[in-house]
Design brief:
single chain, 6-stranded antiparallel beta sheet, alpha+beta, 6 strands
Length: 220
């Protein structure tokens, strides 16, 4: 009977401990559910804050010695064709810029660039990223290839229609009929004079416009 009494006492004591432990766990869960959400610390707020920096450059270009542009190098003239071969540095106002922003923890970043805005060799870049997950880039680039300056009597160069100056066609026809029996040299001189009087400069070259988009996404 004594042994049975001890066994019963131990069983009752063990059951009481389990009930107490269960109550403690339930009480802990209830307490955790009622706890307010912890506000981010000052260090966390600084890490998630956004930074900004950049520059905008505005200026003007001009020639101090007024160089000749329309000269033909093959005839001994001075030409700016080589100077402008792959760029556009015409006199006038110009602008460049770079703007950037991102988070202090390095998770997000955005950059925007612009170079020689408004000219034939202008370039624009846009980059945006979320570190380790998303990287995006867009670029627009213009690259000229200038051959130099030429001369023509036609209007509308660079379009789908070329036209002669008003009245020139009739004038050239009349030059060939100056007077019955006149010397051919006289006719040629008249034609040459009218052509030279109607010549104007035209830039010769090609223009390449290139757009590119890059996207890299890493899923979780």
């Amino acid at each position: 009977m004594k042994v049975h009494a001890q066994t019963l006492f131990l069983t009752v004591a063990t059951s009481a401990l389990l009930v107490a432990a269960g109550s403690l766990v339930m009480g802990g869960k209830a307490q955790a559910a009622d706890m307010p959400v912890k506000a981010p610390s000052t260090a966390e707020a600084v890490a998630n804050a956004w930074w900004f920096h950049g520059y905008v450059e505005v200026g003007g270009r001009f020639f101090a010695n007024d160089p000749e542009k329309s000269g033909i190098a093959a005839r001994g003239g001075r030409s700016l064709g080589k100077f402008y071969e792959y760029r556009d540095l015409r006199p006038g106002a110009f602008g460049n810029f770079h703007l950037a922003t991102g988070t202090n923890n390095g998770l997000y970043q955005i950059d925007v660039w612009g170079k020689n805005v408004g000219y034939d060799d202008q370039r624009y870049d846009l980059s945006a990223s979320k570190a380790g997950e998303l990287y995006f880039n867009f670029q627009w680039d213009e690259t000229p290839h200038n051959y130099g300056t030429g001369h023509t009597i036609y209007n509308g160069v660079g379009t789908t229609a070329l036209t002669l100056p008003a009245g020139l066609s009739n004038q050239l026809h009349n030059d060939c009929l100056i007077a019955p029996g006149c010397a051919v040299a006289t006719q040629n001189a008249a034609v040459k004079r009218d052509v030279e009087n109607n010549l104007h400069d035209v830039d010769m070259g090609i223009q390449r416009d290139t757009a590119s988009v890059n996207l890299r996404l890493t899923t979780t």
